[in-house]
Amino acid sequence: MCGTRMDVELQLGASRCPPATILLPILTILAIAMVLCTPRLVGAQLVNPLAPSPDSRPPLLSGELEAPRPFTTCPQPPVVVVFVEGFDYYNDSQHSLVDEELKAKNDASVQPVSDLADGVSEFAAAYWGTRPHNTAAARCVVAWLSLWAKQGGMTGQTNNQGRNHIKFRLHQIAVAYLRVKEEPSLDPKHLATINEWLNECATRHIKLWYERKGILNEAGNLLYWGGSTVMAVGIASNDASLFDWGIRYGYGNFVKTINADGTLTPELGRGPRALKYHAFATAALTMAAFLGEANGHRLAAMASASSGESALAALVLKTVQGVRDPGIFKKLTRIEQERPKQHDCKGDCDLAALQIFTHLCGPDLDAWPDACTAAADLTYAIQPSSRQLLGGFTSYFFGRQVPYPPASSVLCNDAVLC
Question: What's the alpha-carbon Rg for the chain, to the nearest Å?
Fold first, then answer.
């Protein structure tokens, strides 16, 4: 016990207790180790927090990409792509200036993967929001994914940009799959095929790649998204080793490297997109914390090595402050910042993850009052919002749910969705 009389007597005049700059990183590493050493029963199933509740359903919200279209028939899936090749479309060293011609070339090259992810996200939303559930929508998700699994989609060689696209879209696919996989009518053999495929994609393109490259301690949004992706896939395939890897190297590196003021050094280096990339990192880390919370790991409460306070709360607060006052990040980067997308963003709303963060704040938003209140206020101002990489339809899934069956027709007046 540093600083106590007993401690002083035991040290017999030894030097004073280590300063906070030494203690905090050590405590952070110990906290990560304690999370990973939490006892888990042999054979215990990882908890899926994205399965729908039978007692509630999403409200219908007006806004682009917020209320999914009613599901009618299962269309043909996108053509399976085994080798995913992308094109780097930034033309500056900070990866902040987009070459629109190269961007279009990249988008066309990876379009089948994007179409797969967007399609299963919409079908999952159609299933998740209907009561009783439209089981045909869930079967469509499984049909698309099992076809890609059987034909080895996304399992071949790739390049850096292709790998990044797989990483992001695999996150979206895993989230969509988690929303339907508990449906009792689904064929267990198909689910097993999908589980094995998701596991192979995450292991090959994220876990083993980072391990081979020796960059497991390279902080930045790419590793954070990789961590959240393997956590989601770990839950989907009930692979605790993948789930733990995501915590250790994705979230763990975040809490070890975030600055005391809530900024991320790699993202500050993104020039005019520094604020947007703080929001991008926040999205991955918030979903990781949400998945961890359901499985007994309070990742959102983990203290940063730099401040001793919640790392995620600090990042959220700094990001919201930057949105409210653009001068903050302009001062930090000495360059005018691009404004994050907040409305009419076609499934690419930069701040949609704030809706998820409020779930970690407690019913009274008192877990981290400053960050939680700021996130809730901004969420209220911009909703409905949606981010495809988080599974899409973010406000629809994570906003206020309504009872089922409806107490009155006012709560649900759509004959197809209700």
Answer: 22
